[in-house]
Automatic annotation (TrEMBL):
Keywords: Cytoplasm, Initiation factor, Protein biosynthesis. This is EIF2B subunit epsilon/gamma LbH domain-containing protein. Component of the translation initiation factor 2B (eIF2B) complex which is a heterodecamer of two sets of five different subunits: alpha, beta, gamma, delta and epsilon. Subunits alpha, beta and delta comprise a regulatory subcomplex and subunits epsilon and gamma comprise a catalytic subcomplex. Within the complex, the hexameric regulatory complex resides at the center, with the two heterodimeric catalytic subcomplexes bound on opposite sides. Transmembrane segments: none annotated. GO terms for biological process: cytoplasmic translational initiation. It is found in: Cytoplasm, Cytosol. The keyword Ubl conjugation does not apply. GO terms for molecular function: guanyl-nucleotide exchange factor activity; translation initiation factor activity. Residues 147-239 form the EIF2B subunit epsilon/gamma LbH domain. GO terms for cellular component: cytosol; eukaryotic translation initiation factor 2B complex. Belongs to the eIF-2B gamma/epsilon subunits family. PANTHER family: TRANSLATION INITIATION FACTOR EIF-2B SUBUNIT GAMMA.
Length: 253
């Protein structure tokens, strides 16, 4: 047995549908895949390991289960023919726990991240224009950023290192973008500042807006001089002219 402390559960699980349905039918009180179903399946897998000598099975409480005589006769035949298959054949014929739980350990050249918070979402977007840039399919410019050829930048507008400006987006004059990701077909006016933020697709940001540490979803409209700091803005929401929001979640009702 190898015990490790350098791995993180990515919270991504794949099940045999029939097995999962059986468990949920037997354990109707279960509400969590991670905290209840998965530990139960692991326990069932361990339950099927021989204990107390060959030819015995241990149940969920640790008690020895004796297979029927017909199974024992079958067992002796299989032991003589194929000793290496002895344990598996006994489990299959006795109806014991046959769940098998496996884990995929990503190698160091793979990218894997647990996405369970706004901060994690922002971190992943920055990774895509950083250490995991190969996932985007784009290549970096000489300024260490990604700007799609179809984008339009106004006079004196700057897009800093580790930023991404996706297909069809436009920046007005004197805009500044730092450590941020801007999606497809966004329309950004003049004198707009975007820092440490994620702006999704088809967003309209009018003149003089400031966005910092925020996530702006699809089809949002920020009217003139709106200010967002550490906010999340839901899809299709309109931030009114001159409004100032800090640490808020804004969404359509």
């Amino acid at each position: 047995m190898e015990i490790r402390s350098d791995l993180m559960d990515a919270h991504l699980y794949a099940f045999n549908r029939t097995t999962l349905q059986d468990v949920l039918e037997q354990k109707e009180a279960y509400r969590s895949i991670r905290l209840e179903v998965l530990p139960y399946l692991v326990k069932s897998q361990l339950r099927s390991a021989p204990s107390g000598g060959e030819g015995t099975i241990v149940d969920e409480t640790g008690n020895v289960v004796v297979p029927p005589s017909s199974n024992l006769q079958c067992l002796s035949q299989h032991r003589a023919i194929a000793p290496s298959a002895f344990k598996q054949d006994l489990l299959a014929s006795s109806g014991g726990g046959t769940h098998r739980c496996c884990v995929y350990i990503a190698s160091k050249n793979k990218y894997c991240h647990r996405l369970n918070s706004i901060q994690a979402y922002c971190d992943i977007n920055r990774d895509v224009i950083g250490e995991a840039s190969h996932l985007s399919g784009y290549s970096f410019s000489s300024h260490n950023n990604i700007i799609h050829p179809s984008c339009v930048l106004g006079s004196k507008s700057t897009v800093g290192p580790q930023c991404m400006l996706a297909e069809g987006s436009q920046l007005g004059d004197k805009c500044g973008v730092k450590r941020s990701v801007i999606g497809r077909h966004c329309r950004i006016g003049s004198n707009v500042k975007i820092v440490n933020s994620v702006v999704m697709n088809h967003v309209v940001i009018e003149d003089g807006c400031h966005i910092q540490g925020s996530v702006v979803c699809n089809n949002v409209q920020l009217q003139e001089r709106a200010v967002l700091k550490d906010c999340q803005v839901g899809a299709g929401y309109t931030v009114t002219t001159g409004s100032d929001h800090k640490s808020e979640s804004l969404a359509r009702k």
